[in-house]
Amino acid sequence: MEKRALILFAHGARADSxxxxxxxxxxxxxxxxxxxxxxxxxxxxxEPRLQPQxxxxxxxxxxxxxxxxxxxxxxxxxxxxxxxxxxxLRVIHPKVAIRVxxxxxxxxxVLKAMTDYCIAALNS
Length: 124
Prior knowledge:
alpha/beta, 4-stranded parallel sheet, 4 helices, 19% strand, globular, lyase, Sirohydro_Cobaltochel/CbiX, CbiX-like, CbiX/SirB N-terminal domain-containing protein, metal-binding
């Protein structure tokens, strides 16, 4: 049976408190999908990084991984750095399916939710 995982991939920061919203997002997502392992990984400055996180998941039998860039847009990290990292991971783990979603901030539903929040802030 195929074991799936979802990795929420964020930039990372020096301040440990920066991680809290991503941890909440991970936990909320995990509650909605208990059959899928939901984890975090970071590009830099925080742990775990993407490669060790994928290796850890594969060691537990995961064979299908989706990486969701929790970025507002498709900047250099999402367009250049992440594809290179994923290409390396596909070489290291050739029997694992690894997909990458678009940046979360470019999804129409996410943009609508952000717009609703901004309008509510103006009217509060």
